# Entry
Amino acid sequence: MIMLMLTDPFMQRALIAALLVGVTAPVVGTYLVQRRLSLLGDGIGHVALTGVALGWLVGAGMGLTPNDALAIPGAVVAAVIGAVLIEVVRRRGRTSGDLALAIMFYGGIAGGVFLIGIAGGSSGNLMQYLFGSISTVTDGDLWLTVVLSLVVLAVGVGLRHALFSVSHDEEFATASGLPVWALNIVVAVVSALTVTVAMRVVGLLLVSALMIVPVAVAQQVTHAFGRTMLTACVVGVVVCVSGLSITYWYNVSPGATIVVLAIGVYAVVSLVAPFVTRRRPVHDPHPDLPDDVDLPAAATERAVAAAKECR
Amino acid sequence: MTDTRQVTESSEAVIEARGLHFRAGASHILRGIDLTVDRGEVVALLGANGSGKSTLVRALVGINTPSEGTVRLLGEPLGAGRRGAGVDWSRIGYVPQRAGAGGGIPSTAQEVVASGLLHGRRLRLPRGWRDQVANALEQVGLADRVRDPVHLLSGGQQQRILIARALVREPDLLVLDEPVAGVDVASQEAFAATMERLVDGGLTVLVVLHELGELEPLVSRAVVLRHGKVVHDGAPPRARDDHDRVGHRHQHPHGDDNGGRVVRDTAETRALDLEVRP
# Structure
């Protein structure tokens, strides 16, 4: 039965796309959670919708067939521009970043629906981008997905130490002479590319879930940045591939199945993790250092006894 | 060995700030600061809360862009054209006031300290970085905490992690912003001992302090800020004369070798407590 699925060319393309998205989305998501920008993916996703409609409009104007030939390139361009804009706003004043994100949410959706009407389509045409349409992935789409994923992975993994430094403590990175501004733009662009890569698999409205939920799962079981990223990637691949496989036998939406599965894993792990990861600490949590007060003899004895209990 | 260092040292200014102004909105925080720190000096930056100490050091390391004025670090201008492109960041270590909120993801001491190995155009960790990180953690007495998540350490330990992060690149200049605020006396002593060893090895230090405390014997010069201006630049107010201390260097050009500061209550020291009109 599994062989049947693996020999289906539609399914082969879909599985490769799901696998790539499963790896790349959590890599980028780790940086976004680290910088407390978990909703950035959503903002970019909404803007990408305007890009889809814009691509459609330009394609219709040039008389291209199919009329959505330029939808994905349009989404890539719009997403990159949107992500860089958010970064610019964030740099100019942190307080207005939240507001800018909100305006992008509304503007992106409204712009998309508005432009698709002008292009001669209906908002129904946008559904496959909003909720994903992995079964319609063509060879061309797949190649674009492969190339963009490799770019995202090369940057996200290759520059992980520098991106960690900038995401963890931006001021220290600045005081170290790192090209902070350029690295922030890199994170924004890579986030935009990830959104457009994942668009076909889970849809623009659910893209962010794939970036953030695996990281939330990983955080339950590890306390290190590197391990969080690695664990999140494993979770991402497992939910993407198994979620997609389920839709081969049951007629349910792949994007929704993958996200529901991811949230299910999160729920189970957060219930189980406290029992699995609770170990006795290696150290006495109170370091054995003298403090600044002179104690009477009796209190000193009690301190020694307390130290023994913690050992 | 102290003597050899004195011979090879030039009088190159490690930090040189000229006419520094910093405005945040309508507030004029720094109002024309001139500050020079020479190689081998240990300069304490003193002043009350809100006098502009942190703003000044943040401008000196490139976090705050001054509204007017220039900063030169190790002889290279900061902020001209491509910001600080000529500055050798591998020789500068900065310790912020306190551990920031950190990121949204827990990180280990090793990961945080390793980020100190990246600077300037170096975006990837060098070979043998684990040993360098272990070495830096050893210097602040946290060698056994390599794999511990930083957010579970105590405030004082987190402060030491930040110091290790600055030390890991083996800087020639260390800029510290209140490194011992809220740290118990024993840890302050340990910190002072570490600093003394590094200063004897040739480190130049600019340290923001609330009070001289355990670092007092090390400090060669004090700069006092009031209302965004330097109101005192010279002999630190100190409790004892430590000219006979091993390693003391008679190179600061402020004529403090005449033994006029033996008693704490010299006129100069007391003047610091008075309202100084700029």
